[in-house]
Design brief:
The complex is a heterotetramer, with two copies of chain A (219 residues) and two copies of chain B (220 residues).
Chain A: H1 6-11, E1 18-21, H2 31-40, E2 45-48, H3 60-64, E3 68-73, H4 80-88, E4 92-95, H5 98-110, E5 115-117, E6 131-134, E7 137-142, E8 147-158, E9 163-164, H6 173-176, E10 180-191, E11 210-213
Parallel strand pairs in A: 1-2, 1-8, 2-3, 3-4, 8-10, 10-11
Antiparallel strand pairs in A: 5-7, 6-7, 8-9
Chain B: H1 4-16, E1 24-27, H2 31-34, E2 46-49, E3 53-57, E4 78-85, H3 88-96, E5 102-105, E6 109-111, E7 116-117, H4 132-138, E8 141-145, E9 149-150, E10 154-155, E11 157-158, E12 173-175, E13 179-184, E14 187-193, H5 199-204, E15 210-211, E16 217-218
Parallel strand pairs in B: 1-2, 1-5, 5-8, 6-11, 8-12, 14-15, 14-16
Antiparallel strand pairs in B: 2-3, 3-4, 6-7, 9-10, 12-13, 13-14
Helix pairs in contact in B: 3-4
Classes of the chains: A alpha/beta (219), B alpha/beta (220).
């Protein structure tokens, strides 16, 4: 049985872990799981996510509560607290081009040794990285990313853990589902097995470890 | 002189003229977002939103916002009929794989070699690049839509960028309130100028060497 | 307008081209396009596909008609004619592990410089290929694949070229849709724009150049 | 002696005992496909089909075949409730990324170092590897299900494979009609043997060096 209680799911997240969190500017982010982490004070986290959203929404709330030691993200500009903590030396910030970030996560989940991307060649991003010349073009070797846990937000889940994401809330979620040792899901709704058409599944249940019903205001 | 609102309108309107029927286009935050208001009605443009869809539509009516439907700037938007959602990896296959015809971006600096710097001012302002570096490297055509100077006097269009680059030699066209500049193998060619500004004045406000071609046009 | 006639679509395919063809053992393969190619005798083709299916179905029919000079596939065992032509020197066969094949096509469509895979290390497949050691593990550098045209089989298409594939007929089709200069689609049915839910699209229309309605016996 | 049908049944039945509740499993063509008939009813196994789905179900009733639903061997199949379709790239993320608990394959040769060769006999038989090399490299556990010899006399379980390899040092367990052999750092350990065969006979029919452990069991 993949279906779990909220408490059982939060129990899996420990201080010091590397945590992938789905979402793009808090859309597709498991807000209840983040509240659970804040309430338990789970700290010293390394967070891999698209960005640090806003001070009062999504991943930004973990930053504001000083639970995060390091972020691996493409952007921190929408959350002034991230910038302040970075300047104070409280928060380590690893900035990565968004397409490279998601592809590195995919490589981590796909058993690939890295990503060869033209993005960042000739910029600061290339510093210290291996460059491969292939058919006359330069590509950066970017390494795979994996996490201890992935925290995802789904719209519907069935009791086998099959997931559907809603509209633009899909974003990083299905990719992160492949790249963590444990995959924990906040679904708006949990339905019986068979209620989700196999042709509509975004994340097959074989990737999911635990799911809880968090409610929501979807269509 | 033109005020800030007028400047932004001039730029957005001129960039819109670069779009062709059938183009797949990504519009960045700020002036680029406003390009959408000037797209001719007789051409069909598909807008890409890097957070995961094509078919980006206008803002919803107040009260009709969908919590799961924003653009890459976080604003509530709509999706048009015939649009398609995708995950972030698929969104950047579209960008990096050359399937995006045009990307329009703002910038901190741009130079006559087509270099662009728009993701950080070391020690001062470090928002990060988001999807910009992928867009700059991946799009078939990179158009920079920006005010010509920083606060009336400090040049943005340089001989060589001094800030950390977002992309090297990737910019194709620069559109400002003063003119339209094309990055060529010979340098930066002023193809069109805004007759509200004297050519000498434009030259003064541009650090990069501007090439004035024989067929220099007035900007519409 | 993306919608075209069968003849206009076949017109795009020329002798000597490199052609990606969707499908897995003829499921998800555009049979009418293949018939069109046979009727016009479009030859000297290089075919990139999962396998050469059967002599009387799918890609195998092109092989039987001797229209193919080279195949880049993972398997030829279900089509004895492929093996015979290979042994006669009539058909060049490049055998590639299936997961590597599809990832090389994806890299071709995604603007990546190659694929770093552990599959094939220590085997004949590694011969002549660059090996990268990353975090103590060996990975083969496999190069991207692209084609002049991709021939796909969809279930439903709308008039903007958005595609849905049916059940296991999805397979290589959505990946190939990204990796060819021209993407040509045989759809069972073409529907009005708006009839396909944006959340259900497998291949966005921006990838598709031409589509024709080929009929079929879907659900 | 046991006949071919009995051999295949012994092997498939024994392999089924290796599966545990919740496992995600890929069964190759031939004997491995038959493993499904012996999976205990009280455990829940998810079968992966590399052409693009999980939740592989039994063959449909005659006349109920679906043209778009086959297994990787091309046979009409069904998908179970709770299954999921995916494209081929996603199917091999599952395989290569370590998300597959067990792969069960037949083989041409396998050796005491865990090497396996099952995709070609140069100049004779070159079907290709299909998904086998990815499965062998990617699966958490590789189980070879094969008759012990080729036509009663020619060993298949060798000191070292002579045919081109499909995977190097990847095999974990070999199940034949004669016994169950584990690939270990010390060599090939015969963990169980079929009492219908004398140990001396098994040894003779195995080119690889077999280690007989103190706790050697009879095969069920």
């Amino acid at each position: 049985m993949k279906e779990s209680s909220f408490a059982e799911v939060v129990e899996q997240i420990e201080p010091g872990m590397t945590v992938m969190i789905g979402g793009f500017l808090a859309v597709g982010t498991p807000e209840k799981l983040i509240t659970g982490m804040i309430n338990k004070g789970i700290d010293n986290l390394t967070v891999i996510a698209n960005e640090t959203s806003y001070p009062d929404r999504g991943i930004g709330r973990l930053v504001v509560e000083k639970l995060v030691d390091k972020v691996i993200v493409s952007h921190i500009g929408t959350n002034p607290v991230s910038g302040k903590q970075m300047n104070n030396g409280e928060l380590e910030v690893d900035l990565i081009p968004q397409g490279t970030l998601v592809e590195r996560i995919r490589a981590g989940g796909a058993g690939l040794g890295g990503v060869l991307t033209p993005v960042g060649v000739g910029t600061k991003i290339a510093e210290g990285k291996e460059i491969l010349q292939i058919k006359g073009e330069d590509y950066l070797l970017e390494l795979p990313l994996r996490a201890d846990v992935a925290l995802l937000k789904a719209w519907k889940a069935d009791r086998k853990g099959n997931l559907i994401y809603r509209k633009a809330a899909r974003n990083f979620n299905p990719i992160m589902a492949t790249a963590a040792d444990k995959v924990l899901v906040e679904a708006e709704e949990i339905v019986e097995v068979g209620k989700i058409d196999p042709a509509r599944v975004h994340t097959p249940g074989v990737y999911v470890d635990m799911v809880f019903a968090g409610g929501g205001d979807g269509e | 002189m033109v005020n800030k609102t007028e400047k932004r309108e001039i730029i957005a309107r001129r960039v819109a003229q670069e779009l062709q029927d059938g183009d797949v286009v990504n519009l960045g935050i700020g002036i680029p977002t406003r390009v959408v208001d000037y797209i001719p009605e007789d051409i069909d443009i598909t807008l890409h939103s890097e957070n995961g869809f094509v078919g980006l539509g206008p803002a919803p009516e107040p009260g009709k916002e969908d919590k799961d439907l924003i653009n890459a700037g976080g604003e509530p938007v709509t999706i048009k009929k015939g649009g398609a959602f995708m995950n972030s990896a698929e969104s950047f296959i579209l960008v990096r794989g050359g399937h995006l015809d045009i990307t329009v971006l703002g910038t901190l600096q741009v130079d006559e070699k087509g270099n662009i710097a728009n993701w950080m001012i070391p020690g001062k302002f470090v928002p990060g690049m988001g999807g910009a570096m992928d867009l700059i490297t991946g799009a078939q055509r990179v158009i920079v839509a920006t005010e010509h100077t920083i606060k009336e006097d400090k040049p943005k269009i340089l001989k060589e960028c001094t800030l950390p680059l977002s992309g090297k030699g990737e910019v194709d066209l620069i559109v400002t309130e003063m003119g339209v500049m094309e990055v060529t193998g010979k340098g930066l060619v002023l193809k069109e100028y805004n007759p509200k500004f004297k050519l000498e004045y434009i030259k003064k406000k541009t650090e990069a060497e501007l090439i004035f071609p024989a067929d220099l046009q007035e900007m519409n």
